[in-house]
Amino acid sequence: MNYEQVAELEKQKLVPTYDRLPFLAVRGEGCYLYDDKGNKYLDFLGGLGVNALGYAHPEILAALRDPSENLLHVSNLIYHRFQAPLAAKLTALTGLDRAFFANTGTEAVEGAMKLARAYGRNHSPERVEILAVENSFHGRTLGALSATWPEKYRKPFEPLTPGVKFVRQNDITHLDGNFSPRVAALLLEVIQGEGGVVELDEKFLKAGQELCRTHGALLICDEIQCGLGRTGKYFAFERFDLHPDMVLMAKPLAGGLPLAAILAREEVAQAFHPGMHGTTFGGGPLQCRLALKFLEILERPEFLKHVREVGAYFRTRLLKLQEELPVIQQVRGQGLMLAAELAVPGKEAVRQGLEAGFLFNCTQERVLRFLPPLIIERQHVDQLIAALRPILASISTMQNKGVHA
Ligand SMILES: Cc1ncc(COP(=O)(O)O)c(C=O)c1O
Known about the structure:
Layout: H1 3-13, E1 25-29, E2 32-35, E3 40-43, H2 46-49, H3 58-64, H4 83-94, E4 98-102, H5 105-123, E5 129-133, H6 142-146, H7 151-154, E6 164-167, H8 172-178, E7 183-188, E8 191-192, E9 198-199, H9 202-215, E10 218-222, E11 246-249, E12 260-264, H10 266-269, H11 285-298, H12 301-324, E13 328-334, E14 337-342, H13 347-355, E15 358-359, E16 361-363, E17 367-370, H14 378-400
Parallel strand pairs: 3-15, 5-6, 5-7, 7-10, 10-11
Antiparallel strand pairs: 1-2, 2-3, 4-12, 8-9, 11-12, 13-14, 14-17, 16-17
Helix pairs in contact: 3-11, 4-11, 12-14, 13-14
Bound molecules: pyridoxal-5'-phosphate (PLP).
The site of pyridoxal-5'-phosphate has 14 residues, from α5.
């Protein structure tokens, strides 16, 4: 089937939840994705942060196709050889003690909210509230959705999980005012991804940690988008010397297959007993095996250094572009989680970018977000910047002339 046939069939047969880009992906290699017409796209979207090693990474493919391994699934009633070593690796990386494996980011958030309540209840029957931060995104199942800020995501599905309150971003007074012995956890993204790559202040984060300690609440860092090497560190919280009680990760963990993890401090993890939480697929042998390979690559001495260097270069190039083009209002982010906030809607830039052979997306209407594979090189950044210059110049001209972008 070609693009037109697939698009037509999807229009008739799929629940209309996605607004897809107009091309049919058929193959990928390194930082490039190819369509059925032979066009190639330099990918700064990275499967929404999943394809950290790009497409068809030879070592991930070799692990996937290892002829000596044939277990795809055994269920969590049976031991296999890969879950425990993966848990050991992730506990070492996070400084936490135990892991629970799920499949998606939203599921990790759900599990963390349950664990926080179970732990809180062990101390006081009242300790059930979850504090989340305005502008956050934690997923779309009913619990995780309760902690997700944009009303457009929440409103149609109310009533949601009670006991979740939002605190204002970087507003320590508001945070303090919302803390009480009823708070079981403060859930936050150190860098808010879907919210437009917005970094929370160090002071706010540290105050949050301090308030959690004072009130016996848990600090949960949702590192689903900003973790696992994305910012040039294993986890974004490391930059501020935070010590979360739980860390959540997903996206790139299994090299492209669904796998998520909740990492927790010993005392916290012990609030779950057998039967209190579980999932059929979470932590299956194939995913865990690929995750071990992904982490082996991530831990190579040069890997994160490369992310930091290319990320810094990319950021500098965006800042230079901002000097040339006032339509860029702000450049934000760390490592290879970067964004350019525009003065105009970004949809047209995404469309023109695609036409020019570049993939990136737009969040929050006006924020161009870049989550490229962590293996991109400076030359790829140069190519993107060269393409963005005329695109952004043209959309700001369209805007000035009153043409609706
Ligand atoms: C910070 C954060 N938390 C949770 C989620 C939900 O993850 P998933 O889409 O894998 O359920 C996302 C997804 O983008 C995310 O960015």
